[in-house]
Amino acid sequence: METRGIEHLFDFQRFPNEGLLLVLLLLYAPVGLALMLLRIFIGVHVFLVSCALPDSLIRRFIVRIMCSMLGMYVKQNDPRLRDGNVKLYICNHVTRFDHNILNLLTSCNTPMLEGLRGFECWARGYMEMAAVTGRAELVEALQRYCSTPGVPPLLLFPEEDTTNGRVGLLKFSTWAFSLTESVQPVALFVKRPLLAVNTVESSWVAELLWTLFVPFTVYQVRWLPTVSRPESPEEFADRVQELLAIELGVVSTQFTKADKAEHIKRKRHVMPRAANSNLGARPRTSPVGSVGPSSGTEDRQIAGMARQVKEVLPDIPLSIITRDLVRTNCVDTTITNLLECSEEALEEASTGDPSGLSWGPQSPAAPPVSIIKPAAKTFGKSPIDRHMSLKERKEALYEYARRRYIEKHGLNQENAL
């Protein structure tokens, strides 16, 4: 399957882009609001029933029927595939209620790793780990839990954050695969009409209200065969991730939770500022901060070009590289601009002026470089080529600064050597 960029793993807007779907959503809105109010009333009773009844097959059946009235329809493949001896379920993460959905099918506990404490943690169905302060202590506590006989299995989401469930999986954390010798992968599909299943930076309360607003949300659970661990936890995590990706029909990526947070941060800060920059910018068909297919491709291209420039010029901040790439849309031109700016900085430093020691795009009014152009004609395809290109540019840059200094002060060529 074709590798996709990280921006395709998440939805940044909840409403559809198609005009027909927007019209249907507008027509459905009054019905959805009335349905949401009614379901809130029913949801209170679902919560009370789930709290009053002990954990059993009868309770799960009653709560599952009541959840269908809330528009949350849960289906599973053959329940006999569920291994009653396994102590750890591994599932992909799509919504903030995935653990509640799995609890409607079987008894399992999901530890709250961060954020919630006390009543809110208990009300949302998490197992609180209040006494745990670090990752090593968490692994030790969960290992003790898994070795305790008679306790329900653990349900963990090694992606550690949600995706839209349509394109790929975040890289699995390896610590979860050191708890037991065998795990059972669980593939979760989530679909709903009109609206996105989840959006980044949306609270669980907002996600719940939108779930009650839409006509229905279908959760499809598939139990995969139990997988044992003959290798290291890292290789075990990669193997289970690949198995789940194949079952879900998505790609297995190397992006992590930290990469998602960095992408959201860049989407919120860097790209809007670049969109507002109109000095020498090429015309664009859509704003840089939008989430349509064309802007997503453009965002991925800018990020890829920024990484190429960063490999050649590792000392220049990524924000400056990105800003110049938005203007030029060319790797070679951006490298040339940044190198020429560094030439000016070295020349000013040689004359004792500290004001020239700053990075930034070259001003349009700056004089062109006529003696030496320390920019390669092409971008190297291998790291060795790029390293040699950087070395040659540095040598050309120093030679250019030396000659300018000699010419400016009228020094003799032999005395300056």
From TrEMBL:
<feature type="region of interest" description="Disordered">
    <location>
        <begin position="277"/>
        <end position="298"/>
    </location>
</feature>
<keyword id="KW-0551">Lipid droplet</keyword>
<dbReference type="Pfam" id="PF02845">
    <property type="entry name" value="CUE"/>
</dbReference>
<feature type="compositionally biased region" description="Low complexity">
    <location>
        <begin position="286"/>
        <end position="296"/>
    </location>
</feature>
<dbReference type="InterPro" id="IPR048056">
    <property type="entry name" value="AUP1_CUE"/>
</dbReference>
<keyword id="KW-0256">Endoplasmic reticulum</keyword>
<dbReference type="GO" id="GO:0043130">
    <property type="term" value="F:ubiquitin binding"/>
</dbReference>
<feature type="transmembrane region" description="Helical">
    <location>
        <begin position="20"/>
        <end position="42"/>
    </location>
</feature>
<dbReference type="InterPro" id="IPR003892">
    <property type="entry name" value="CUE"/>
</dbReference>
<dbReference type="GO" id="GO:0036503">
    <property type="term" value="P:ERAD pathway"/>
</dbReference>
<keyword id="KW-1133">Transmembrane helix</keyword>
<dbReference type="GO" id="GO:0005789">
    <property type="term" value="C:endoplasmic reticulum membrane"/>
</dbReference>
<keyword id="KW-0472">Membrane</keyword>
<protein>
    <recommendedName>
        <fullName>Lipid droplet-regulating VLDL assembly factor AUP1</fullName>
    </recommendedName>
</protein>
<feature type="domain" description="CUE">
    <location>
        <begin position="301"/>
        <end position="343"/>
    </location>
</feature>
<comment type="similarity">
    <text>Belongs to the AUP1 family.</text>
</comment>
<keyword id="KW-0812">Transmembrane</keyword>
<dbReference type="GO" id="GO:0005811">
    <property type="term" value="C:lipid droplet"/>
</dbReference>
